[in-house]
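Worked example 3. Consider a protein that binds zinc ion.
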Amino acid sequence: MPHAIRVPPRPGEPAYEAFERLAARLGDADGDRLARSLGIDRKALRHGVGVDRVGELLGLEARSLTDATFVREARGMRLGGFVVPFRGWAPSKRVCIPCLVQDSNGDDDAATLWKYRRTWWDLRAVDRCERHGCALLDACPGCGSPLAWRDRPPRLCSSCGHDLLAASGASAPDAGWEAYLVGRLGFGPARPAAILDAMPLTDALSCVLAVGETLSPRSASRSSPQVDRARATLGFGLVGDGGRALRAGLLGLEPPSPHLDGRRLRRLLDPLLGWLEAHPGDATGPIRDALLSHVRSAWVVSRELPLLGETLAPVVQEHRLALGRRLGLDPTILDRLLRHAGLAAAGERECSAEEFARLRDAVEASVSVPEARRILDLDTRTLSALAGMDILPRVPWAEGEATRGRFVRSALERLAASLRYDVPTVGRRTADHMTFDDASRALRRGSRHHDRARAIRHLLSDRIRPCARLDRGQGPTTLLFDRRTIEVLQDADMQPPDL
Ligand SMILES: [Zn+2]
Ligand SMILES: [Zn+2]
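Given these inputs, the predicted complex is written out as structure tokens:
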């Protein structure tokens, strides 16, 4: 028989919570009496057993209860089409204090009826409230007591009076993962995430966890809920944007050795690699491509190796040589260019006209080491002053390079590429012009090399801009600056600060 007092289920409220809420409404604080009198097994209810019957007994809408209740199955907990492995689900006591405060419409004692737990707070990969962006709490950060929010206003700790609303912390910009998950579960607005939207939510969850685990610091311990949440957030950040961030993240991984073999590959790229193998298909294509492109650019393939449905082979030389001749590049630079243009496979077959045009453009826009040295024309001490300023990030290993060589290559190439100026060339300077060295001196006092290095940093960050360059010579020292602009900077004491 339906129970006399009805408590309509709220959006996202699991059946076990609707039951507890009703019990509290009836003055049965721990729910034991109500469960006994109705013959309800609360432990089973937590696992989604008997939801329909509970709905019937309590006069609740069975449909909305089932929509929000995880049900125990052989493989894990299921909610509609979404299955979470058992270890990813735990009806913890975590709650969002701002949500509860809003539910109860302020700190009103009589509002016990409306505060409720959301079903996604039970997911271990959820760390924050998708609406408020603040942390979910399961204990008072002030005294550590469990939160007694059900029978009293949720805002203040019942033991020490700590303001839990303030203790939940500020809204974080990284609650994007939680918002996405809740949207996919149908309890919030849909947030698009290109790669993940193409997969079932079950796969999307395991995907962000696998990406997060592969790219998080190795020292992280294996299985605490905090680690799960951090991994999900990291993984979502890397695949949520369509794959660009993932490519950059993979680029930052340093292979344990430049030479590729299956064992080393696993050590570096599992569990993402394992996940991809278990999830073939179109939806995972962008992730697969990002991983393959990382492997091609960071490792030396010395013998054939099957990977994710492709065979990585030592470079097929003929096409590559022909392509190199057409573009006027030596093989090392060509390889780097192909990877840069995302056309690693083009070197193994005939290039299409469109691909060739892209490569041409890339050649136009890039520089090689000798060219970089020529473009920069800087003395060694200025270069080492630049290195000391940490202006340039490290780049992945390339075949045959020593560590020091790698740094020099990246520094030179990036610097030269950044300092290509689209400014008119002039035959001689006028009184309005200031040379690079004059400008460096005007802006800073120090050794000549450090002045130059600092001026280059300001150039890179666009704080100063050249107005012309001399038509003889190479490098930043041929740049000319507008005298008045530099003097204004100098006089106004608006010297660009050191970073
Ligand atoms: Zn909230
Ligand atoms: Zn407290």
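Take a moment to read the result before moving on. The beta strands are 71-72, 77-79, 82-84, 305-307, 310-312, 425-426, 433-435, 468-470, 479-482. Residues 15-167 form one domain.
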